[in-house]
Write a structure and sequence with these properties.
The chain is of the alpha/beta class and about 90 residues long. It has 3 helices and 5 strands. A 5-stranded parallel β-sheet has the order 4-3-2-1-5, with helices on both faces. Strand 2, helix 2 (about 45-60) and strand 3 (about 60-65) form a beta-alpha-beta unit. The relative contact order is 0.27.
Length: about 90
């Protein structure tokens, strides 16, 4: 089993990053998602809410460096340290 981190950056395509993470979970790898520095795009919220529900159900970790109700808060420094534990870190 591989450990994979998905970094959702300020690309405007957060829903696609969440979809990709859900797809990667089919390989039985450990997946964690990190939302950095910015909230989700408002126009994508209906799609994003569906993916967040699915992601929670299948056990993918959700973390952010700012306080967000549906994500676990983790300071940026701790997120950086955590990346060393992963086999793959995928920026999206």
């Amino acid at each position: 089993m591989k450990k994979i981190a998905i970094i959702l950056m300020n690309t405007g395509r957060h829903s696609e990053g969440l979809r990709m993470a859900a797809g990667l979970s089919l390989l039985d790898d450990k997946i964690d998602i990190y939302l950095l520095d910015k909230d989700f795009n408002v126009e994508d919220l209906p799609v994003i809410e569906n993916y967040v529900g699915i992601i929670r159900t299948i056990g993918i970790g959700l973390y952010s460096n700012f306080i967000k109700d549906e994500f676990g808060f983790m300071p940026t420094v701790d997120i950086g340290r955590k990346f060393a534990e992963y086999d793959y870190v995928i920026p999206y």
